[in-house]
Design brief:
Elements lengths: L2 H36 L6 H35 L7 H24 L1 H8 L6 H14 L2 H17 L4 H25 L14 H20 L2 H7 L14 H30 L12 H36 L2 H28 L1 H9 L3 H15 L2 H16 L4 H24 L5 H28 L4 H29 L6 H25 L3 H15 L1
Helix pairs in contact: 1-7, 1-11, 1-12, 1-20, 2-3, 2-5, 2-6, 2-10, 2-11, 3-6, 4-5, 5-8, 6-8, 7-8, 10-16, 11-12, 11-13, 11-14, 11-15, 12-15, 12-18, 13-14, 13-19, 14-17, 15-17, 16-17, 18-19
């Protein structure tokens, strides 16, 4: 692996990582405020809002997200070789995407009651279902603006302007946090079930769901400014024939198929998680607990894998278009090892410190933290394979191959769904979502192995021995730091019984774990760590 290339990719993703870090920190603050406003595991309002607010995210991934991510950058990179720099092609591609996205958003909003029925559970009361439908009418317009954000952001990324795309969600979180503060100020906290489903009013619904949607609107529209500064001027063009959109349509079709399969799997997860809905005053992990745990799971993935993959995707697409297979392989090895270095630590840290992490995010006592911590541990086991498969998929997309990821996704979803269904049928109510998390982690491992095998067949030897050997070193360092972290936490007893002390415990032990982890990696002569240190030294020296 090229150490200079690792340093270059680390440098390219630094600004994106910083934006993602700020966004995720604010996202955690938003989640904490949300638990103060409507709770997590007690009562039905949190689950009603969670399902309604997740639907536009899931539909976006189904209808636009993965399709746009897989199509836009490779197509724009290739179109840039045209005499006009690809402007005409890009305008037509954006116009078609905007029209389709707008029509689908209108249709989805009209079908809000049907969508709530699909994603919720028959165990819900009529009041909880009605509340979720009311939330959905306000949340579903997010679908269009999520898509607009992705389209504008991918135009920026294709032109190697990565920062704005990663920093825009910061504004989303700021707006949403402001909305939650207004909600708590106007209607009071609801962390212990003070806002039962039958007592929600129109203003409460508007403030909570409306502010969530307003944040997504701001996230999309703020990208217009950097595009204009870059010199990009969008001109709507409605003639879609004879301009080379056929390849884009084929890639989009296979990607859409993969996302349909994925969303069918998520429907199984959502309905199974809804079976864990608390009844009366009991504490039980359900959809809201799943979302909070998934947010924690996605934090390291977003900080590292997404930032690095975004930086990698443009050069990967250029190498693939030029037929430079060795450069594609080298870039992939560099990326997957850098991601593995960071994610292996996060895996150990969240397993050791799942209790304090759950307390910081969820609050409301040991029982709720215990319910969340089991889900966090079950999910975080799959972090390393999940991020590795994310990078593997980007290599396929760089070659305009969305067919192979579809066939990889199919057995993953089937096997994960079987595990989810078995969890719902066999496990006690309070363990259902933890079983779901473990089933998802198993699916990520399967998908990673299939992706690696099929990519090896497609472009040849990927340097598997080098990658495995590097991850063994990461694993050894993570295991030692994890054991030490778990031991230190056990010595604290119930010190982390509040959000403040839980944060102190997680921050203190986590910092020590990080020092131990990097120290062992340094002793094992891990080149990825030395590349990161070189980049940091250069930044500090500057």
């Amino acid at each position: 692996m090229s150490t200079s290339k690792a340093a270059s990719f680390a440098k390219s993703s630094a600004i994106m990582g910083a934006g993602t870090l700020v966004s995720r920190v604010l996202g955690l603050a938003k989640t904490m405020l949300l638990t103060v406003a409507i709770g997590v595991t007690i009562g039905g309002a949190a689950d009603a809002f969670d399902v309604a607010n997740k639907i536009p995210n899931n539909l976006y991934m189904l209808l636009a997200g993965g399709v746009l991510n897989a199509v836009l950058v490779p197509q724009i990179v290739r179109a840039a070789e045209q005499p006009d720099g690809g402007k005409d092609y890009t305008d037509r591609l954006l116009t078609l995407s905007i029209l389709l996205l707008g029509g689908l958003t209108i249709l989805a909003t009209a079908l809000a009651p049907v969508l709530i029925w699909l994603y919720s559970s028959s165990t819900w009361s009529p009041e909880q279902t009605s509340l979720a439908v009311a939330f959905a009418f306000w949340c579903l317009p997010q679908l269009f603006f999520y898509g607009l954000y992705t389209m504008l952001g991918q135009v920026l990324n294709a032109n190697s302007s990565f920062g704005p795309y990663m920093w825009a969600p910061v504004l989303n979180n700021v707006v949403a946090i402001a909305g939650l503060l207004v909600f708590i100020w106007m209607f009071g906290p609801g962390s212990e079930g003070q806002h039962p489903v039958g007592e929600w009013t129109g203003p409460m619904i508007v403030v909570l769901a409306g502010s969530a949607t307003l944040g997504v609107v701001a996230q999309a529209l703020v990208l217009i400014w950097p595009l204009r500064r870059m010199g990009f001027r969008y001109t709507p063009r409605f003639n879609f024939r004879g301009v080379g959109l056929g390849t884009a349509a084929r890639v989009a079709g296979w990607t859409f198929g993969a996302l349909v399969v994925g969303q069918l799997g998520f429907l199984v997860i959502s309905r199974a998680a809804a079976l864990g809905t608390s009844q009366g005053g009991e504490v039980s992990a359900s959809n809201a607990a799943y979302t909070v745990s998934y947010l924690i799971f996605m934090l390291p993935h977003s900080l590292v894998a997404v930032s690095l993959a975004t930086a990698l995707f443009t050069p990967l697409s250029k190498y693939a278009a030029a037929g430079d297979t060795p450069a594609v392989k080298d870039s992939f090895r560099t990326g997957v090892n850098l991601v593995g270095l960071v994610n292996m630590f996060f895996t150990a840290a969240f397993i050791a410190l799942a209790g304090p992490a759950a307390m910081v995010v969820g609050g409301a006592g040991f029982e709720q933290a215990r319910a969340l911590s089991l889900v966090i541990i079950a999910m975080i086991i799959g972090l390393v394979p999940f991020s590795a498969n994310y990078l593997l998929q980007r290599v396929f997309y760089a070659y305009e191959d969305a067919k192979t990821p579809f066939w990889i996704n199919l057995p993953q979803v089937v096997l994960t769904s079987i595990g989810v269904i078995m969890s719902a049928l066999i496990l006690p109510r309070h363990l259902i979502v933890a079983g779901i998390g473990l089933s998802m982690s198993t699916g990520y491992v399967i998908a990673m192995l299939l992706s690696f095998i099929l990519l090896h067949r497609k472009i040849g030897n990927l340097g598997g021995k080098t990658i495995v050997f590097a991850h063994i070193k990461f694993g050894l360092a993570a295991a030692v730091s994890g054991v030490i972290g778990s031991f230190l936490l056990s010595r604290l007893g119930d010190f982390w019984a509040s959000r403040g002390t839980a944060f102190l415990a997680a921050a203190g032990i986590g910092t020590l774990m990080l020092i131990i982890y990097f120290g062992i990696c340094w002793a094992l002569r891990v080149p990825e760590l030395r590349s990161l240190i070189t980049t940091v030294r250069a930044k500090l020296g500057r």
